[in-house]
Amino acid sequence: MIMCTINSFQLHSKANGLFLLTLFSACLLSWGAFSQNNKWAIEVKGAVTENSRKLPGAVITVYAGGSAVNTINSSDGRFDFNLSSGTDYIISFTKAGYISKQISFSTKNVPAERVSHGFDPYTSISEVDIFPLMTGSNFEARLEQLLQQPIAKVAYSPTLNGGKGDFTYDADYSASMHEKIQKIIDDYDAFNARYKELIKKADGEFRDKDYNTAKSDYTAALNLKPGEAYPKEMIAKCDSAMAAQHAKPAEPAKKPDIKSLTRQPVKPAAKPVPETKSVVQAAPPPARPAAPPVHVTVCPCIMSKLNDSCRKYLKPFYYDDANTMHLQPKTFAQVKEINFPGFNGQRFRIVINITAMPAGTIVTVYDEDKNHKSRKPLYTISDSGNRIGFADVVCKTSRFYVEYNIPPSQKEMCALIMFGYESH
By CB distance 3.0 to 4.6 Å, which of 46, 102, 172, 365 could disulfide with 126? Predict the structure, then answer.
């Protein structure tokens, strides 16, 4: 506020009276210039954070009219600066390796009468949380595009403080932006969870020496995050292990021949009793080949064939995962439910093979689990037709739920469901 003080003195002439009037007019003009030329300022204080912890090395830049008017390189994330009146500002918060956020702050349209009372420091943006860069898919581009808009808009409101007026943010706008940002974060969390699940599954398959399946899962993980080194390394190890497996059979075939040759000369020199023992010991080997056919006739599932048949229908979608349902014979009907992860907005192809299931089997894919009364079916397949089918569906709840309705059966049975995601 500008104060104008006039010392008391006697007016002895019209000229003196004119001087006094001129001086008083000058005071009025000075107040008018103060209110119109934006000579006041408001202090803004807060901190840049990551998960509510102050972020060292954050950079706060204040823009007016598209040009930077103030830049703060904060060693502890804190900031404190003044904004002059009558200006529309954009305040940017960033750090190398992080996605920037910005806030708009207008100091326009403040009545001169309100300015005379002054303003407390504005601290409602005391924490501005920024995100590390997102790797994989299009999440970073989605978030950066959204954050080209301010996450909050601050301006003067004449209705605050019982009609006295003050600065505040647009609560509805901020809530809308927060909801949009949170959706991207939720999708990204589900995306990372799927990547970790694939890596965990592939690591287990690698330990079990199922190198071909492990390679498929490592490849699916790499398709999600092409820049990750670990799945690349493991794919190379799978290739080496499979090459070694193919090279081994030639050597074991020679060893039995050598052993049999070394044993042959021993038998004629032995006594009759050892000869009868050797005949008894030689009898069991022919019985061993009889065991495998028993398993083949008991279980109708040849998983490699089920897997290959599903993969034909999966293209051009990227393989994500597969689930096999193995069931023992039952004299009563069964209902089984499995689920697998997705992420919101992503398009998936779900392939189902029930050729090794009994007649009357029905498989339905839902958007929610069986506890949700309002859940909706996304795809159904039964034993009509060729009993292999697929559907392309968009994930809306971060998971898919598959329900198997299986009639009584007198033999072992199995089904396979495979799913892949659409690349953008």
Answer: 46
Helix, strand, or coil (residue 56): coil
Terminal-residue alpha carbon distance, the chain: 59
* Other residues' Cβ atoms within 10 Å of the Cβ of residue 105: 24
For 150, half-sphere exposure in the C-beta direction (CA atoms, 13 angstrom radius) is 20
At 97, the amino acid letter reads G
Amino acid at 54: K
Strand ordering across the sheet containing 347-353 = 318-327, 413-421, 347-353, 388-394
Tell me if 334 sits within 8 A of 382, measured CB to CB: no
Count of other CB atoms within 10 angstroms of residue 1: 10
Provide block-wise average pLDDT over 10 residues at a time, the chain (424 residues): 32 33 32 50 93 90 94 94 95 92 94 88 85 80 88 91 85 88 87 91 92 93 90 94 78 51 49 49 45 37 76 83 81 87 82 88 89 87 76 85 89 86 71
Contact 100, 143 (CB under 8 A): no
Residues 6+ away with beta carbon under 8 Å from 228: 135, 221, 222
Q: How is 178-233 classified by DSSP, letter by letter?
A: HHHHHHHHHHHHHHHHHHHHHHHHHHHHHHTT-HHHHHHHHHHHHHH-TT-HHHHH
DSSP 375: -
**pLDDT given at position 216:** 93
CA 44 to chain centroid: 34
DSSP string, 230-250: HHHHHHHHHHHHHHHHHHSTH
Maximum Cα interatomic distance, the chain, rounded to a whole number of Å: 157
Distance separating alpha carbons of residues 212 and 218, to the nearest angstrom = 10
